[in-house]
């Protein structure tokens, strides 16, 4: 048997050449030895010449008749040379065997037109086998003098084994080197077939030797026997190879039947390398230009910009197209280091493989697309499209998951953040600007959040941040402050700077009720913050009137307006020094049929959002003017203050409506004070300027409510000339403890003096506050110290408790209350209302 190596290129060539060279050199030694002994054993008879010629013929035939197996670009042949050599050793002198091996193998190489290196290797290897065999026979003294048949077969077996081992020993390294496969694997390949082949060839050799012993003429029967055995054997090899190939193809197409494109490509590359025994396999996809390249063991490249392949030889490109030849998804390339011709079976396999791969790629791509769409849907289902933040559902899901494991990860809390006056941005600057505000707010919140936090947009201008793994509940407030502080700097909307105000509510995860309860508590806290005029508030169970949901309230508004469920209470505004009533602020109340009295901060926003604002505002104004009319009729000509929603100021019809109501109730415009809250709309929009100018020009008085809490207070004042400032109650509440609060009050009073404005302090709750305010120069105030908001009739009754035409005092005069009588410094007539009856202190 012999295997011959195919031609190789560059890299391994040198090692291959060295190896073959070594074999040739060793073989030359054997040849020289043989030639030296040739003269002594030169064939002299016709019979000898016949034997010599037969030997050459047998070896030539043994070299030509062979079964071929291709490994990568190398074809290996299993031939009969060594059988012929062993037979030769039995019938001829050693030097003849060597000589006929050289000649026979050379002749077969010429017949097969083998390349020089293959021929050299074939001759060298077989000469070495012949030499080895000869050496063993001389050691064993074989064939010797007519031994027993058993002895003959036994010795022949040893000789044959040596020949076969030498064959494998010499061929394996060369094949392994030439085909680039590991030598161990090479050895294991088709081991059973090879062993069977050896056995058959040994049997042939043994028979031949026995036949020769009986009658050399029967030797003529050997070639047909060999040929038929050979045909059977090579057919077996072919069947085996094909069977394996089909099984492998079946396994491969099975393995390609997966939905993951990566796996399809990896499997295809490694399997195709094996299936077609290629040095490298490359798959290039049309869609995206992805190229995957590798061999039976590794993926060497996977990407879109491959370097030229390192395997430089023959390339076999196969389009990856379906059976219908349409829709080609890319190309499969088999690379071989040397020239290769695929058998018909291999070509068919290749086409089948390519079409299976095409289907697999198409399926995987379709699946990937489906998976992507599903992922998009999942993302869209859990995220807000505008801001990319989590949506309400995601927050609830994540929160619920967090709450069930909260003992493991510390404290969970929720911060609810609601933008104030967002609707104005939308209505006046357009939805594009509104969206921009939301996007920027989302970015700010995301930036201020910790990695563990989940930032969500719940809808509209409402955001929530789920705080996870807090070390202690108290930390939540700090985090909430940080989140709200992130909204402090004005936003930049195409060059226009816009401030957003927001209120935050904090709730720490409750023991029961889960996420829904946490959200509800944060919502309650947020409304507490709004009501208290604070930036953030923490949920306090004591202040929770759990049954109210502003959402359900929102739906009941139309009925409330139609059924006049909104009423107005009046909170007196008093002269701080004397305690007399000098005005009253109308504060809306909702007498809900089942919920009872509802605070304005719980429903105002819903009213503003509902489109019912004009009707609501008109109803409140009407009631306020009716009340003012009733007081005047009773002899108390007090101005009434009415709060105005910023949104009303965007309505150009608003001044007309106000003036119409004044006329209807026959009240002069200066009996009405409209309280405006500082908002961005107030400061930035022309329509507001026009509305306010028209009101002002008609004699209606304007007050800036909650002064000091907003922004741009000063720039606002320069644009909108108001008559009155109302110091926010948060400053009054804090003036005794916080120097900053006192400073704000002082500077507001200074401002009032220099601009000639009335200044009213809100939220006066104690005598010390009243006195301190008075000492700072504040003339007017309102608050629980004097009275809570009262129904119009109750206020009238209080007024009527006054004597001698003076309005009833709601507190003793300051100089009555203490031993020391002090006059507040630098008071002007304007900021110091004169207390006498039925006069309007705030009239110029
Ligand atoms: P505001 O204009 O600052 O009204 C003063 C709020 O402070 C009132 O709350 C009043 O009850 C409360 N208050 C009065 N004295 C004290 C005190 O000594 N201590 C404390 N802590 N609070 C005091 P109310 O009635 O809940 O009104 C809340 C806000 O709702 C008002 O704040 C105003 O902005 C708005 N509002 C009320 N009525 C109307 C209305 O008819 N139209 C519009 N657009 N807004 C209204
Ligand atoms: Ca007010
Ligand atoms: Ca206020």
- Kindly estimate the percentage of residues that lie in beta strands according to DSSP: 15-25%
CATH architecture of the largest domain: Orthogonal Bundle
Q: What oligomeric state best describes the polypeptide chains here?
A: single chain
- Biggest sheet: strands side by side, in what order? 15-16-18-19-20-21-22-23
The shape, in one word, is: rod-shaped
| Associated small molecules | ligand C2E, calcium ion
Topology-level CATH name of the largest domain: Arp2/3 complex 21 kDa subunit ARPC3
Number of β-strand runs: 24
Mean pLDDT: 83
Short account of what is shown:
This protein is an alpha/beta fold and 844 residues long. It is built from 29 helices and 24 strands.
Could you walk me through the main structural features you see in this protein, from its secondary elements to its overall organization?
The chain is of the alpha/beta class. The chain folds into 4 domains: 3-244, Arp2/3 complex 21 kDa subunit ARPC3 (Orthogonal Bundle); 256-370, Beta-Lactamase (2-Layer Sandwich); 392-546, Reverse transcriptase/Diguanylate cyclase domain (Alpha-Beta Plaits); 571-783, EAL domain (TIM Barrel, Alpha-Beta Barrel). Helix content is 53%, strand content 16%. The strands form 5 sheets. It has an 8-stranded mixed β-barrel, surrounded by 5 helices. It has a 5-stranded antiparallel beta sheet with strand order 5-4-3-7-6, with helices on one face. It has a 5-stranded mixed beta sheet with strand order 9-10-8-13-14, sandwiched between helices. A hairpin with a 2-residue loop joins β9 and β10. The chain is rod-shaped.
